[in-house]
Amino acid sequence: MIHLKNYQEEAVNDLTKNLYKLLKRPGARQNLIFKAPTGSGKTVMMASLLNKFCEELPERYELEKRKAAFIWIAPNKLYIQSYNAMKGFFAEMRSIKPIFFEDVSNDELLPNEVLFVNWESINKEKNTMIKENETNKNLYSFINKAKLNDTEIIVIIDEEHMFANTKTAKRANEVLQKIYPKVEIRVSATPTTSSDYRTLVERQDVIAEEMIKEGIILNPALDTIQQQGRSLEEILLEQALAKREELRQAYENLGVKINPLLLIQLPNDTSDNNTADDEKYIDVVLQNLEVKYNITVNNNKLAVWLSGRKDNVADIEKPDNMVEVLLFKQAIALGWDCPRAGVLLIFRELKSTTFTIQTVGRILRMPEQKHYPNPLLNQGYVFTNLSKNQIEIVQDDMSYITMNKARRIENYLPVNLDSTYINTRIVRNRLGAKFRTALYEIAELNWEVKREIGSDHFFETNKQLLKKRFINTDINTIEIVIPENVLLTGEVETQLVTETARFAKTPSELARLFRDFCRSLTAPYAAVDSTPVLEGAMKYFFEDYFGIIEYDAIKIMLFNDNQPIFIELIEKAKERYQEMQEEKANKATKDIQNYKWEVPVERIYNELYDEKENVEKHALEPFYEYKRASSPEVRFAAYLEEQKENLHWWYKNGEKAKEHFAVPYEDYLGKQSLFYVDFVILSKTGITCLFDTKTAGSDPANAHLKHNALIDFIAERNEKGHKTIGGILIPKDNNGTTTWWYCKNKITNTKDTNGWDRFDPVNA
Q: What is the DSSP letter of 99?
């Protein structure tokens, strides 16, 4: 069962809509662009698209052809990875059949088959897969035969950007012209083809679902003054290993068993074979790792993945694998993923100075698909031997790859704040894996059936209970009538049935009728995703409780006199499932994580922030200010600098991430939310100040609710001996002088400021 995130579900729906539009258009080779960031789960989304599409296609009567086969083209060995992923997705549902070239049967691509091929096997006329031969058995003949049987051909071009260079693009166009598919779905994080039909996944949506890291920090080379006679390679290796150790310690402090991995990528990353430059870097790296850091292949701390050499690579993806460093080449490891990888050291040739998400894609994924309270673990780290003025970042990735890093001041004094993060999970509008549990609960409660794991002596007892409910289980006398005008998909073709007295005999006929039966009972859940779940649950129910095989179980359930009894059971099971989902949702809203908070040791700022000069008291150096910061925020930051003699430090807080300080509150809709105060301040008198700047009357729905929650928070801190003040902070202008006012008590609005106190850092 494929479980989709919000953005994935939206993308699949949009892809499906675009695909149907293109199938209706005249002509062939229609382009559908699917742009999704690295780490967003492109393969999962494509699998869900194929499943949804193949489920719906037979009933899309507005289309001329209602059968489709797919050809999945990928570079190098990426096609094997995609094949294995698809094989895993469809092991249970069987709506799609992933195959290799040698698996093609009857010399033809059949409906719902996905043929996985690597580009190198079809890019030359002499290649076996496309070469003409006496038996006329090659890729093109298989495709043509499928077309003669009214099967649409849809090509999926994985990592489409890799076919963009002039020579490859020309040859790819020639191959695609011979295949002549109805639709070409071009999948990439950086697609090069343009089309009016595009589906786009935004990187921010992927970050919000905590699938990938919040950003990538690109560290340029150190100045020669800092090298102290050592080579640049030695300095970079030292820095990268230190960062890996910092991450390891951070995981350990959280009690998370993840051993972060440092990846070292050789410079000539477009070729499998090692060059002279490669050998130079290999020698330097291996010698330094062994002599200075005791990291070797023999002690299992080093893995090597190069042409003709794979040391300690097995199980390297496991979170707690012993390997700390992997030396590899990009061309060899294309498509390989290792979520525990957090640091990347790239030795680049001067001719390739452009960095993109594709370059650093291997350190994007979150190892547990969630962000951590420690911000260090929510970033990826890249070290390179290029200087800052040589590095180019492509426009599309500027908001993600950044060199703007601020570090906490050395004389920082702690504030010991209790921060909160609410981890919410959305209940999906489809039946999930827990439906079978709900079905079993209802059956045992209402039908009094029982089961014992590892035993089958209860089968006959349960069958007697079926008979008591007047369920006919005599499969020898049961006949299933096929209603008029029901389309049945057989092994070869789809035929229209018009006679009303015909009986379903073949497994394929029964399977289709059972699928339609289940589909009709999925409401209010999405039919495409829920139908296979309901089908599987009912089949397992018969197998687990009665020992009845699938074919016989379907006949029993579809028998006209039995149907009302099973429909009642399914409806009650759906009600129980809904209760379970609501219970889960209620728990999810209470999934509140509380943790101690201090100003982060390090914070990364993207291109939406500008570095500000002459700021001396900000807790992070340098100070980066949001380009679209509100007027009160900008003015108050300037005021704090004017009052710097009275402050230990001040900090401009962030929003919507675990690394930022937040107080829980209920918004005007009664929903649990988080209040990220704008400023955290520590005065020279030792008082912690928590202020959120606003203009009078702004945010009327929630401002007073946020303030009041903060007042309760402050009261608790003061009771514990932590002197604290704060609240909503309003500026007042008088004769060119601005003063700042807050209320120590709870409020009903921010317009009436009578009785409010002036914030004075001298006496705070």
A: E
